[in-house]
Amino acid sequence: MSATDQVHHRITHCRACGEAALEEVLDLGAQPLANALPAHPDEFAAERRFPLVLFACRQCGLVQLVDVIDPEVLFAHYLYVTGTSETIAAHNRRYAATVTEVLGLGEDDLVVEVASNDGSLISCFVPHGVRVLGVEPAQNIARIAEERGILTEVVFFSGTEGARLATVHGRAAAIIGNNVLAHVGDPVDFLAGAAAWLADDGRAIVEVPYLEEMLARLEYDTIYHEHLCYFSVTALLTIAERAGLRVVRVDRVPVHGGSIRTWFAPARTVTEHAPEVLAIAAAEQAAGLHDPTRLREFAAAVAEHRVQLRELLTRLRAEGATIAAYGAPAKGNTLLNYCGIGTDLVAYTVDRSMLKQDRYLPGQHQPVLPPSVLLERQPDYLLILAWNFAEEIIEQQSEYHRRGGQFILPIPAPRVL
Q1: Same domain (yes/no): 14, 151
Q2: What percent of the chain has pLDDT over 90?
Q3: What is the structure's pLDDT at 3?
Q4: What dihedral do alpha carbons 181, 291, 287, 218 form, nearest 10°?
Q5: Which of 17, 137, 325, 333 lies 20 to 30 A from 389 at CA?
């Protein structure tokens, strides 16, 4: 068996309902792993590429990837940390305050974050006086959380782990899962672990990017190998029922291009989904969110977007303009690789994360430099790959703009601001 075969396999049945009813929606080609940034040009030739193809389940509506990469390869040594954005920091503080208030949490209550990363979110619960615990599989990132005083279990979360951790740490009043459910190969088992750990009156609160927003805003760059699932409320109801949970609340939140915060309760104490949640699912069906025609239209728009973005960058370069990028997010690597945007069009990128600096973007190999380089080199245009933080980035780079630099936003339509 080849090295590629050992880390890559394909599924044939839906992760939510278990049916073999998967239909191809969008093929983004063979792509490198979006967070695997080479440290040296000598590593370029050995980069592995895997199919990045989106499918939809005709039975329950879950949109998902069928090509699965070994989680140990994706997450055991991770380069993404959540604590580098002021936008996310503010979001986290509001999030902790909301959960604490809604659930009436106190000093005896345990709040857990699964996929706690560097502890940026779970640490926001500390001022509220509750007990906190992180669960994070990436050892290098978990160490950062431990250094800031967040007790962290270094494990991949699952149904079995949820039951085990409940015996070790006691029942949880709240289990937070932010942008993690999309990353797990078996979301039913993952949420079953939350059900096993929750107190009878506890809640699992999960934030995921919303399928409706992805389709409406053409956010195809949020598709990469780590993101195995793209959720609607309809699909989440199916997963919840199989995991022993009920959905009691859904909030729309603007973060990451449009997300939903879903509140789950144990089915042993709450036997029905909330009527207002069922109404959202009914509205999705009425709007044709899972209609194959809408998904085909999305795929056609993605192909047209590639043409438009390449034409814009090619024209600017032909006019003699210099172009750099801001950010080294996973989404940016999907965009650059699908559109074939190499160093001939975008020479380099900058990023505030020191874990990514002095590395190269996977596939197209733009060097990742510190943001200070922008004022030293003053490129004519800055392609904002981390477009979900565009407002924050533009504010940070006000001096670059004052000197004549211009910004390009790639999503939903390529445009110079």
Answers
A1: no
A2: 86
A3: 43
A4: 60
A5: 137
Token duo for residue 191: 């949420």
- Inform me whether the pLDDT recorded for 248 exceeds 90: yes
Q: What is the pLDDT of residues 378-410, one digit of tens each?
A: 999 999 999 988 999 999 999 999 999 999 999
Mean pLDDT of the region 86-101: 88
Q: Are residues 220 and 112 both part of a single domain?
A: yes
**237, 271, 287 - which closes a domain:** 287
- Max CA distance (Å), the chain: 66
- Alpha carbon separation from 44 to 38, 39, 40, 321, 331 (Å, rounded): 7, 9, 8, 27, 20
* pLDDT tier for residue 41 given thresholds of 50, 70 and 90: very high
CB 362 within 8 A of CB 33: yes
pLDDT band for position 73 (50/70/90)?
Answer: confident
As beta bridge partners, residue 360 has 367
Does the pLDDT of residue 177 top 60, yes or no? yes
Whether residues 301 and 347 share a domain: the answer is yes
Considering the entire predicted model, what is its pTM? 0.89
Cα–Cα–Cα angle for 71, 179, 139, rounded to 5 degrees: 45
| Number of residues that make up the chain | 417
- Domain housing 14: 3-66
Q: What is the pLDDT of residue 2?
A: 43
Residues 338 and 189 placed together within one structural domain of the fold: no
**Other Cβ atoms within 10 Å of 360 Cβ, number:** 23
Q: Fill in the DSSP letter of residue 34.
A: T
**Is 251 within the bounds of a domain?**
yes
Encode burial over 134-149: b for 16+ CB neighbours within 10 A, e otherwise: bbbbbeebbebbbeee
- DSSP H or E segment with residue 202: strand 198-209
Helices marked H in 104-158: 139-147
Task: Identify the CATH number of the domain in which residue 334 sits.
Answer: 3.40.50.720
Take residue 372 and report the two structure tokens written for it: 């200070």
Instruction: State yes or no: pLDDT of 76 exceeds 70.
Output: no
